## 1
Amino acid sequence: MTRDFNAAWRKILILEVAVWVAGLVYFVIYLFHAETMTGEPAADDPIAWSMFLAALVAVPVARSVQSRFLRRLNATVSDGLILSDQDDPATIGTAFARLASRSFAILVVVLLVLVVGGIAIETRSNPLGKPHLIAGASLAAVLIATRFAHGVAASLVLRQFKGPETVFVLNPDAQDKAAGFGILGYAYYNQALLVLIPFLFLAFWLVAVEFAINAGPALKPDGSFSPVAFGNYIVCAGSTAPTDQSQCPQSEWVFLWRDDYLVAMAINLVVFVLSAFLPMSFLARHMRKSRRLQVWPHVEELSAHVHDLRARYREDRDDPTAFAEMQARVAPLAAELTLWRACPVFPIPVATAAATLISNLSGILGLLGFAIG
């Protein structure tokens, strides 16, 4: 019996919506009854509830961005830029659904085991709040697995076009400065930007807590830290658990998860670079192949034709009329020759790709340096 992967993927997307609604309801209940559910008011652990809130906000944003991918891929194919025996939209859609469904099955199991299992065996968390943390993490695991499954499928579906019969048709005059493949290249680039949402979350809290330590700390008369919430995240240097800040010099206060956040942010940037450049490198490889097999022979033929026209002028170099005729014939051919020689072979402008790669590699090295130092 053949499995209907299109139906399976549609069910997963429906499950995602149901889980998102359940998560929103659960989150609202927690905000109003946090102390009953966990024994602590929500204000005492802002990182925990803001993490879940970030997931609830990020999922519809990611879904909106990713929903455009198949339309852009089919547009690239229907425009004749990719010629293949696998270029039927139904065939592409089925291949995508198969990859997405299988990726979701693997990712959701891995996330549930790692995240939920990690919370379950963690000994420092609040015992009363742990069941609710597990419930929230389980819901988040389904949401994250769905979005990552879409991203994985979007990258792997390009394998449909890896056969020798596939032809990439380059358009050197395209306004996207990517030979017409910019619509697809930016689809991958924009999708990869979604991976940076956790990076922004971690960076916000890292800066916020470090600012509280260095610029805005205050001890109340009873010795507690103000704001109380940040006090739960600050430890004395060398300690691994929140301590009474009044018993520790302010110069030795550190963010409990500082190094963990720095390493996680560096890993996040690595994932961003890979998710952006791996699929684009596939496109670039086929674009270079097309340049070698189609563009260069045309350039050589065009160059020889221009040379012949100019060579004829040498025979009539004293005839102004002949020179004018030669120039009129050569000018458009020379312009076309220049255009083809400069034909892009990367699916986004090279300047954008280079800036992205350099800035992220610098960020990765800087974050790891801070963590090690």
Note: Strands lie at 82-83, 167-168, 218-219, 225-226, 234-236, 253-255.
## 2
Amino acid sequence: MALCPPSVVGPISPCVNSVRVQNQLIGATVAVLRNGAQVAGGLATWTDQTFDLNPGVSLNSNDKISATQSSGGTTSAPTPVPVVVQHAPAAPLNSVTFASAVLNCSNALLISGAVPGADITLTDQHGNIRGTGVASQDGSVGIAIAPQLGNGEILHAVQSACGLTQPAPTPSPLPTEPPIHLPPPIV
């Protein structure tokens, strides 16, 4: 039986240290290819999975990233339309945005607008790190906040990618109160 090629999820920047692959069979061995040579891979434990790049491997602008899957002695063709690695970001990096509601009791926030693979850091007004994450291929990341956001507390988000750092932190919107009465669940 022929195997269908898996899909590589883009965009991909030179800042990433992993590649997201979809549509592979659970239990298949996935090979992530850069210009035809394997740079990552492993056993598929799900049909949508991220594979870390091999140690010492980095991606370069214009690399073509594809993937294959192997199962039962059969290997698929590579991804028919490879994802081309974007150019490295230029200075200055754009500001990230707070994409989720910011509530006085928030214990996680969604940040968007980052370079894929960028490190995102949330700090409080005293410079304490309250949460960190790595932006996915779509430039977003959910970040857990510890301890949870206090009454009226403002956080600042900064992205760092490919040796560059966002010039000025993005302040969160002023937190609002959560709803007093939650609506009944719909079953």
Note: The first strand starts at residue 7 and ends at 8.
## 3
Amino acid sequence: MISYLTIQPLDKGDIFPEFHGKTLTNQKLVFPGNLKGKIGLLFFTFMREGHNQVDSWLTPIQKKYSDLPDLNHFSVSMVREYNKLHRFVLNRSFRWFIPKENRTNTVFYSGKLEKFYCYFNVNSLSDCYVFLLDRDNKIQYVECGSANSEKLRDIFLVINKLTATPKEFVTEH
């Protein structure tokens, strides 16, 4: 049994903890293992309101880094553990409002949420929680809520650092 009182919030430099999910195209994934060797951008939402916040991040990031093949993003919808019928209904409802082109990057997690509340230091279930992982699955950026110009500037700097070769990084800065 996990004592949730001993779980510390995730922070920069931490290895992201393992969890299992399934995309809306029924592909089973293990995180962060499926991201090893790639840059991972993970968005977690607990309520539908959080999906609009994901878009506030993802749209500008995709626009700026569309040519970056090793930047993988996933939006993870977190719901309590339910019986199979309820999970089926929830999965169908997610398919209703998630565009077809985004379904391979939309993950459905159904399980106990308390440890994630601790990991993410959740203050509001309607926020999205953003984690940028390096190629070794270490957290390099943590944020919550909607993107704004300052948050986007900060995450762009980290993405640039993670994707630059040592020579590029030295000459840019």
Note: The beta strands are 19-23, 28-31, 39-45, 71-80, 106-111, 128-133, 139-144.
## 4
Amino acid sequence: MSGLLLIVLMFGYAALTIWLLVKVKALWGKATVLTIAILIPIADDIYYHKRLEVYCMSDAGYKIIGLGSKNLGIFHGSNVASGAPMPDYLNLVPVSFVEFYSNTGGKLFRHERINDGVIQTVEIKSVTASYEFIENTKEYKSDVFTVTEMMVVHRQTGKPLGVLKNMNYYGGWVHRVLLGNLSDSGPTLVKDCGISEATGRYELVNRVLIKD
């Protein structure tokens, strides 16, 4: 839908509201028309904000189930949104090494610490890390919400040691359909649970893999 058409629709909606306010004589009728005109653009946004608030209070945040060793390494699956970890990943988390597939060739590599804190990268044949970092993002109600879940799991048992959840809200229909199309930007983030997913990927590992 073009921006010009959206502008015409917005002015048409305002004109219709004014026309109804003029036509309706009773004060209670005018109040009803005005209330409905205000609620139509924002009613779903009010509901979705409440739903986000409930999720953030009940489900979002860190949940530590168990602790693991920082010396047994962690494997980054290919589904992690940030892509393959850079060598400085080991400066942000306490683990001795991180294994991962490259973003392009599909080869398996390991960043590992050697003498004097130097980090080297080597190609390996198979994953040896005891833990795995998993990240999944799911859509709810089409493009209204996304929920991101990050986990550190034990690779052998599949048991989660720590979980981080966050919900992202992209606005009611006015924000997504009208404003998004008007600016040609598409849906943009309105609000989340106040959790940084970018730093959360490191913080979750720091909270879970702390044993020697």
Note: The chain is about 35% helix and 30% strand.
